[in-house]
């Protein structure tokens, strides 16, 4: 048998804005100042932790969460942390309220699809898999075929090891991409499906070496041969099944693509619900209520709010988390002004968590975390300079300067960012405040 594994092609996932978030950073019911990628916001994190306990005890029905606070205070990070606390395979669907206004679908259809994408179905089946600890991982990168300024993995080699066997495999770009997107590296124990090439991380291998503090699950190095039959557990969403059913095809079409309808009929969703119910009754699957996060919720109109109010009462609905940075605002589609632009009857049913601006120490810690996540080295004085910019202008602006400053440092032939690199980047890329001042000075020269 050839030592080659292939799978369907997926897009390359770059480091995201919140890729460092691992959980709420709460221990024994008390939020730690810096933990799981979160910094500060102790009251908000404590409240979010209590919400997680409410969800786990099954007492969240008819309720939703509202995260309210100024821009750049960690509302999205809190929503992601709640999803992480609920489980690694908990579906998380993020939606900006402006996205519901589509020319191709009704507003309620966009919201319905978002809700169905937030509900997972964990399916169990026996598959032949390659199982082992990755003892060596060699990845090859090349330019993106459609974007020459971006590099993507094009393949590589991995060495899988059990206590009884060790083999090296050539893997294609899709498997490498999936491994990178899931944070898989050397020392991790993985399962790779022989037929589809889907990768599942089991945990970090327990070896004789020492570990720093980590949130990874530590597991024993597998025994026996690398290729074996295992119970393979994978999660799809109700929307994935809706799309497959609308194509009148099998679940396999989820992974191999095909034409799909822009809107899905209620009859299709009813058939999917009946099928999933039968799988659950037979013990082949289980439902995983996920998290639907709607940012800038003040942009929804009265019809959307009515839809969400009804959806909250449904037996099959995800955990709804809303976020806004607005104060007293007109409810879209009406002449009424309400707190956060949300109707009072819905607002009364929300658990409201507020966030506050970060102080100097917290901004410095967040910049440290992002620098580590983006593999950027900062001199101590450069870190202080970025912290000052975060206080004077905004935290987001300071974090965004990391990559340009790193590029400027590399032009000097240095791997570490110095204060002059930060200053050079700040001259080239201005903040919102500086941009506003520039507009006021040059107002007459701009088109109106």
Can you put this structure into words, describing what you see?
The longest helix has 17 residues. This protein folds into 3 domains: 162 residues, Beta Barrel (OB fold (Dihydrolipoamide Acetyltransferase, E2P)), CATH 2.40.50.360; 143 residues, Rossmann fold, CATH 3.40.50.300; 79 residues, Orthogonal Bundle (Helicase, Ruva Protein, domain 3). 35% of the residues lie in helices and 27% in strands. A hairpin with a 2-residue loop joins strand 4 and strand 5. It has 448 residues and is of the alpha/beta class. It is globular and about 70 Å long. Strands 1, 8, 9, 10, 11, 12, 13, 14 and 15 form a 9-stranded mixed beta sheet that branches. A 5-stranded parallel beta sheet has the order 7-16-17-6-20, with helices on both faces. The protein has a two-stranded antiparallel ribbon with strand order 2-3.
Fold topology:
Blueprint: E1 4-5, E2 26-27, E3 30-31, E4 34-35, E5 38-39, H1 42-56, E6 64-68, H2 75-86, E7 92-96, H3 107-117, E8 119-143, E9 151-161, E10 166-172, H4 173-181, E11 188-193, E12 199-205, E13 218-219, E14 227-237, H5 238-246, H6 253-256, H7 266-282, E15 285-289, E16 291-295, H8 302-312, E17 319-324, E18 328-330, E19 337-339, H9 344-347, E20 350-354, H10 360-373, E21 377-378, H11 380-392, H12 395-400, H13 402-411, E22 416-417, H14 419-428, H15 432-441
Parallel strand pairs: 1-10, 6-17, 6-20, 7-16, 12-13, 16-17, 21-22
Antiparallel strand pairs: 2-3, 4-5, 8-9, 8-11, 8-14, 8-15, 9-10, 11-12, 18-19
The chain-level structural class is alpha/beta
pLDDT < 50 stretches: 1-15, 249-261
What CATH architecture of the largest domain would you give? Beta Barrel
Measured distance between first and last alpha carbons: 68 Å
Fraction of residues in helix: 25-40%
How many domains? The number is 3
Radius of gyration: 24 Å
Overall outline: globular
Looking at CATH, the homologous superfamily of the largest domain is RuvBL1 DNA/RNA binding domain
Q: What is the overall pLDDT average?
A: 80
Number of helices: 15
- The total strand number stands at 22
- What is the CATH C level class of the largest domain, in words? Mainly Beta
Biggest sheet record:
9 strands, mixed
CATH topology of the largest domain: OB fold (Dihydrolipoamide Acetyltransferase, E2P)
Strand content: 25-35%
């Amino acid at each position: 048998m050839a030592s080659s594994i292939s799978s369907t092609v997926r897009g390359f996932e770059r480091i995201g804005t919140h890729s460092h978030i691992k959980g709420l950073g709460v221990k024994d019911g008390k939020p730690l100042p810096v933990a799981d990628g979160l910094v500060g916001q102790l009251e908000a994190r404590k409240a979010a932790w209590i919400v997680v306990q409410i969800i786990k005890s099954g007492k969240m029905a008819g309720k939703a969460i509202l995260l309210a606070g100024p821009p750049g205070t960690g509302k999205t990070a809190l929503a992601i942390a709640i999803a992480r606390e609920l489980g690694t395979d908990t579906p998380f669907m993020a939606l900006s309220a402006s996205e519901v206004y589509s020319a191709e679908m009704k507003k309620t259809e966009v919201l319905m699809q978002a809700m169905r994408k937030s509900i997972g179905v964990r399916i169990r089946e026996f598959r032949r898999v390659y199982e082992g600890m990755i003892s060596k991982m060699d990845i090859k990168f090349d330019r993106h075929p459609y974007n020459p300024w971006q590099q993507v993995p094009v393949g590589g080699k991995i060495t899988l090891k059990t206590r009884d066997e060790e083999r090296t495999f050539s893997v294609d770009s899709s498997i490498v991409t999936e491994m990178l997107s899931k944070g898989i590296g050397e020392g991790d124990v993985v399962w790779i499906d022989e037929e589809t090439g889907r990768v599942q991380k089991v945990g970090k291998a327990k070896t004789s070496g020492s570990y720093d503090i980590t949130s990874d699950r530590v597991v024993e190095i597998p025994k026996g041969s690398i290729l074996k039959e295992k119970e393979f557990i994978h999660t799809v969403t109700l929307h994935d099944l809706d799309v497959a059913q609308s194509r009148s095809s099998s679940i396999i079409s989820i992974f191999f693509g095909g034409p799909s309808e822009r809107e899905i009929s209620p009859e299709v969703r009813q058939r999917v619900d009946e099928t999933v119910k039968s799988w659950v009754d037979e013990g082949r699957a289980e439902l995983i209520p996920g998290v639907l996060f709607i940012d800038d919720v003040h942009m929804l109109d009265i019809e959307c709010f009515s839809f969400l109010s009804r959806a909250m009462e449904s037996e099959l609905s995800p955990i709804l988390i809303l976020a806004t940075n607005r104060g007293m605002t007109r409810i879209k589609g009406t002449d009424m002004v309400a707190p956060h632009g949300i109707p009072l009857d819905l607002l009364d049913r929300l658990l409201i968590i507020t966030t506050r601006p970060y102080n100097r120490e917290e901004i410095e810690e967040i910049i440290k975390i992002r620098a580590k996540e983006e593999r950027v080295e900062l001199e101590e004085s450069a870190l202080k300079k970025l912290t000052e910019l975060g206080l004077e202008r905004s935290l987001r602006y300071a974090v965004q300067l990391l990559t340009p400053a790193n590029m400027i440092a590399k032009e000097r032939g240095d791997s570490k960012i110095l204060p002059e690199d930060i200053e050079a980047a700040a001259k080239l890329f201005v903040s919102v405040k500086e941009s506003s001042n520039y507009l006021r000075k040059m107002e007459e020269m701009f088109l109106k």
